[in-house]
Amino acid sequence: MAPPKIVILTGAGISRESGLHTFRDPDGIWARHRIEEVATPEAFARNPALVQGFYNARRAQLRDPAIRPNAAHDALAELDASWPEGRFLLVTQNVDDLHDRAGSRRLLHMHGELAKARCLRCAAISPAPGDLTPESACPECGGTGTLRPHVVWFGEMPIGMERIEAALAECDLFVSIGTSGAVYPAAGFVREVRHRADTLELNLEPSEGSHLFDEARHGPATQLVPAFVR
Ligand code: BJW
Known about the structure:
Largest sheet: 6 strands, parallel
Number of strands: 9
Helix content: 25-40%
Strand order of the largest sheet: 3-2-1-7-8-9
Keywords: Cytoplasm, Hydrolase, Metal-binding, NAD, Transferase, Zinc
Protein name: NAD-dependent protein deacylase
Bound molecules: ligand BJW
Structural class: alpha/beta
Function: NAD-dependent lysine deacetylase and desuccinylase that specifically removes acetyl and succinyl groups on target proteins. Modulates the activities of several proteins which are inactive in their acylated form.
GO molecular function: histone deacetylase activity, NAD-dependent; NAD+ binding; protein-malonyllysine demalonylase activity; protein-succinyllysine desuccinylase activity; zinc ion binding
Strand content: 15-25%
């Protein structure tokens, strides 16, 4: 029998043990910053310097040598490398690059990437300068003041939805790792697949949609994910 077609969804919980904060845990990012001030297109239009500063600080944190992929990122990269062509997709909601650094290849960043900037004039995506400012210039079109962080804010369309929907429509196994299930459309993926695919949640604690999964295992990602993969 052919190996199952797998779709894996990851969230901030998988990077927690690498030293990056989640969003909605008590020590999370939304405990220190108001969503309406930093993570909406309206916030960026109102105060681009404040929003750029929020992402510049998180980008700087990613460059800290102490922030590295952990055993869960490594295990998913191994799974990617070992699984047949056309039967695997890792969809991450994370804007960090820890899956990339671990070596995952069939990877889609549905909420964008902290390390990149996007030009509002020519739509080019380029490596973000260390500090993005309202005066930063686009390396493609030369426009100044046209760059924004390449991330998906509330009210914006996530990236790669066609590819994700196609993979979900075909998958035999859906695994959700380290996500609270509070943000759509990602939180709805399990409902889309649960009537025909096996579904598994790996999370520190039961997520909002835990009851929708065939099976849920609770604990730290660095333990649960390698145990699932190997
Ligand atoms: C561990 C662990 C360990 C801890 N091991 N586990 C009503 C009003 C307005 C809007 C809406 C509405 N209802 C629905 C919407 C839409 C809205 C939405 O969902 N809002 C909700 C708040 C209700 N969604 C959108 O606007 C999205 N766009 C959209 O819907 O477009 C329309 C459309 C799409 C598709 C088809 C048709 C139409 C866009 C959402 C963009 C989200 N952006 C952010 C910010 C990205 C940039 C940045 O990083 O700053 O994405 S918000 C933030 O939340 C970030 C994350 O990717 C996302 C999800 O968070 P995540 O990863 O789940 O983290 P946490 O903190 O919530 O959970 C961590 C979990 O890990 C916890 O469960 C812990 O227990 C666990 N954990 N340590 C294992 N060691």
